[in-house]
Amino acid sequence: MTRRLVVAPLVLFVAACSPPPSSANVFTDLGSLTMPAAVTARDGGASVPIDDQVLWMFGDTLMTVTAGDGFTYRSATAAWGGVDSPLALDEPLDERGAPYQLFPYTVDEAAYNTTNGPMERYALWPGSAIPAPGGNAAWIFYQRLLVHPGDLNYQALDVGLARLTSGSTIASRDPAPLFTAPTPAYALAAVVDGGFVYLYGVTPVAGELDSTCTVVRAPLESAPDPTAWTAWDGAAWNADLTGAATVLHGPPGDLSVSFNAHLGAFLAVYSGIFSNDVWMRTAPRPEGPWSDARKLFTAIPPTSSSDTDYAGKEHPELARDGGAQLVVSTARSTGNFQGEVRLALVPLP
Hints:
By secondary structure, this protein is mainly β. Helices cover 4% and strands 44% of the residues. A hairpin with a 2-residue loop joins strand 22 and strand 23.
């Protein structure tokens, strides 16, 4: 599997600068997340604890079977796991052995994909999620795009909110989007702090090998309301989302943000651009100021030297020793149209 061939969700913005290299590379390989027998590849790998389970969300999912709905691929799937044995995932399958589409298509989207797919299609890619107020469910922030033929030829449309009850792998999409292009796709690295939920968006810098990351927030209970969101403008939270200030540079399309008790600070984790390296930054608040990047580790490389790992992110619900040891996932190609999401146990440097 390669990002170019599989249309990976986490390389929407592939132009980003990687910080100078570091010699530290201490980690323990935990292995790859399990997949159904009919699945050959999937990536993404965002997670969130719901009740006593862990919800895992994946982007483009390739299959060896034609599912009951006629599709040979999914643009999003989900599975459930535990904290003590995070690699072993469980998910219901249809009569053909195919996992279900996490975000059901509308009638028009499904018709378009049936007629034009898979190279020209609507894609619904999970970004991140939080436990829903009241428990027993997740609120998932996802991106809706049009994928066109060609290399990384994506057209961002909007960001939506979907709701998933505990144990299910089929979500319900809210009818109205939260953010619409050209507003950045604020679906990444959801984190709750002080009664607010924060979301991050990544935008390429035109003509440069760089990307910018901006942040918005809303009161937790009001997160489904598009008018409740404000952007950090560098000095205050502003209802004008077009005035968002850059809070950090570098994440190439995805990242995680969490509060790390061991550090007493917020922690951002992300992959380097076209690199197997995974980087971290810290900040006193979700909006920053963020520290300079520091390398966490270099992940196990893909089987092909022409490809790199991607979609690096931390899973705070799996951290050990009070946050001193992180569990980090990366998406890794294992062959043509084959891939896995792999976990590593990484001590903080």
